[in-house]
Amino acid sequence: MYPGSTGTLSPGVSATGYSNASTGIGGIASSPSISTASIGTIDVDSFPFKSKRFMPVFSDLRYLAHTTQVQDLIAHSPSYLSAFASTCRLFMCLNPNKRAIESHVEYETDAWISVFNVTLSLSRVIKVFGEAFARATSAELVAAIGTVVHHILMVCTLVEDRLDRTKFSQPTFHPVSFGGRQFTTVEFDVSEGWVSFHHSLHWLLAELLKHVELLNEGALREVGFEGGLREVFGRGASEQAVLTVIDFPLRGKDGFPEPTVVYLYLYPYSFHSARDDCPDPDWSVGS
Q1: Fewer CB atoms < 10 Å away: N or C end of the chain?
Q2: What pLDDT is stored for residue 35 in this prediction?
Q3: pTM for the full model?
Q4: Total Cβ atoms within 10 A of residue 145
Q5: Sequence-ordered alpha helix ranges (H) in the chain
């Protein structure tokens, strides 16, 4: 179950932080059926993963998803987005690292290269899926956001047994004082915890949030959200759930295994094509 700020359960909140996890944000149905996908893990050191055989698959999917007919299906049929989000869950938080504090890293595997290539290819498909929602209505977009947030929380709260529990733990919260006020925030120390640069579901959420013309106050008011985007996230989700969604992709920006290694990790992302699809969406979700 999902803990409150003191480690106790928040009243009326499900394991993912929603008052009703079977529906999208604000009670709008996000999918005919959102069920936990069959648990599978990816071995980043395996030959199929390193051989780049995945690239034709992602390229073909990207090509198909670009067509007008498929874009319409993605925008108007929730099951397509839900199935794609389940695929993205496989790639969440791949190749996690922990900052080295007391010892020097003498050897670092090259697994990060394969992970970077895979997630970059996936991010381009994510971009196309997100673009499809320019054809959606505000209600359909809100439902899609609810679907993706649900999948994020299934992974990040460890409701789904996907992340390595020896490295990741269920989020906890603590109060902090700032500017004379007290706030509740996620309790996490980047110098001690495990972090990853790979947050495919957050990239998908960022692509959906780009459709600001469907998420302005007037458009949302027509589908029952008087409080704008804040109400879209706040109506059906607990504060802890929203904080968890925001916190996860920001951890990788400050938690590094070692200066030399982080340079190798981040250098490929400095290229324009990678920035658009990977770290920039992380920041947009966090902001």
Answers
A1: C
A2: 45
A3: 0.78
A4: 25
A5: 47-50, 54-66, 68-76, 78-89, 111-131, 138-156, 200-209, 217-222, 228-234, 239-251, 259-266, 272-277, 279-286
